[in-house]
UniProtKB/TrEMBL annotation:
One of its GO terms (molecular function) is histone methyltransferase activity. This is PR domain zinc finger protein 2 isoform X6. SMART domains: SET (SM00317). It comes from the Eukaryota. Residues 159-170 have a biased composition (Basic residues). Residues 156-226 are annotated as: Disordered. Residues 28-141 form the SET domain. It comes from Panthera pardus. PROSITE patterns: SET. Pfam families: PRDM2_PR.
Amino acid sequence: MNQNATEPVAAAESLAEVPEHVLRGLPEEVRLFPSAVDKTRIGVWATKPILKGKKFGPFVGDKKKRSQVKNNVYMWEVYYPNLGWMCIDATDPEKGNWLRYVNWACSGEEQNLFPLEINRAIYYKTLKPIAPGEELLVWYNGEDNPEIAAAIEEERASARSKRSSPKSRKATVSAWRPGVLLQPPRTSPGSVGMSRRRLQPSSRDPSSKSRHFACSLTAPEVTWSQ
């Protein structure tokens, strides 16, 4: 190995390269600008106040096997009963939506979004109010975070309140547990939770992580951002 060789520098994303469909799909509360946490990337910034508990999604991308993914920064892994673990890959901006541009938080203090897997789709939910001029930043902490646990309990309460509907009676959102790599989790009808990545979250280096979620069957109805 050549010790003097330098690694290639990642090309910086440009606002001019953002697909038109992504711009059209932005909620009125946010806009795209260069990120403050990664100078090579575009970020999502609040232009209006966003209340705690606001849900955005779903995260859009190509469904692929893990071996077909070349960049794990813009993807989540979701378990499908008939397919196993599949990646929702938004590496190609043409295949994704605006949630592709939400960057990773570098600390718990920075984090203002957390991910939820609902009906085999990934949503981001606000962990706290977001003021205009703040960048939207996501990380998963698991249910050991009291605020996230409380937010998940709200989802569970919502699911319980809709059990009279045949569709919602089957609602589940499952939680992935560390160390259980081969056996998908089992959930009871009406349960709601947050999945975890297969990799441990001790490092917040997005280049070394993939976003990993477990499956659900059906889930409470949610409002999709347009």
